[in-house]
Write a structure and sequence with these properties.
Rossmann fold, two-stranded antiparallel ribbon, 9 strands
């Protein structure tokens, strides 16, 4: 049958009548095409880190005349020209991809800096990171870390005397502070002092946002507004030094057993248990 006639027949003859005529003629009517099924969504594969190569002319910490200021957990938005920018992911512009809780490839660093970085490490990972920093800094070298203040979170994120709606909203806020943004552990000032001191750091000092007694460590913070509520800053900016008369900068001190036992007993074992 010519195609025009077939089209006309389909328009004027009901489908049920056409099917009956085809069966009478010994032919099987074609089934209506069913909509194509959407493919099952497949989780997107984790992208491979980009090759992270320092820009031409940038010399790393182990090269003669290289940069000896290490910026850990730099991310793609906070790269600093006069620091060696490292991250565990190969973002564009990162000088080197490194897991800084494992052995570091550098020695005799002048400075180590990390902003909103420490709280993203598991507590035992933070101990490993600080051990590496202490060992790879030159004697007298300094570390500066900027991390959310637990006291400020406590002071601002839950108001039990408020209305039910306020307490519900605060409950969300408090739990976001602990679990949001990849946070693993939030630090109080005494905890930071104990953690750094027991690792072997000395000259532990706290500073306001962007301020330091060392010109090289001033004006580094870039994460938003600094605020103080009832004497508690929203971010602790802590500095510490490797002892100036310390031995070879390549020696890796073991964390004190009592520190490891304490964090295992008081925290890590509960996390590992799933409770």
């Amino acid at each position: 049958m010519p195609s025009i006639a077939r089209k006309t027949l389909r328009r004027v003859v009901p489908r049920s009548v056409r099917a009956a005529l085809l069966r009478a003629a010994g032919r099987t009517p074609a089934r209506a095409a069913s909509p194509a099924r959407a493919a099952s969504p497949t989780p997107a594969a984790t992208p491979e880190p980009q090759a992270a190569n320092a820009a031409p002319g940038r010399l790393g910490p182990n090269e003669p005349g290289g940069i000896t200021r290490l910026h850990v957990g730099c991310g793609p938005e906070n790269l600093m020209a006069d620091w060696w920018n490292v991250d565990i992911r190969g973002f564009k512009g990162v000088d080197e991809v490194v897991d800084v809780t494992a052995a570091w490839p550098w020695t005799s660093l002048d400075y180590v800096y990390g902003e909103h970085f420490l709280e993203h490490l598991p507590l035992d990972g933070a101990v490993a990171f600080l051990g590496q920093a202490l060992a790879r800094l030159r004697p007298g070298g300094r570390i500066r870390l900027s991390t959310p203040g637990l006291e400020w979170v406590w002071q601002t994120h839950l108001r039990p005397g408020g209305s039910d709606d306020q307490v519900v909203a605060d409950t969300y806020r408090a739990n976001r502070a602990f679990h949001g943004w990849g946070h693993e552990f939030l630090y109080s000032r005494p905890f930071l002092e104990r953690l750094l001191g027991r690792q072997g750091f000395v000259d532990i000092t706290f500073h306001a946002y962007g301020e330091s007694d060392d010109p090289a460590l001033r004006g580094l913070e870039r994460h938003g507004t600094y605020q103080v509520v009832d004497g508690w800053p929203n971010v602790w900016n802590v500095e510490a030094a490797r002892p100036a008369g310390d031995a070879s900068a390549t020696d890796l001190p073991e964390p004190p057993p009592e520190l490891l036992e304490e964090i295992e007993r008081e925290f890590v074992r509960y996390v590992k248990s799933g409770h």
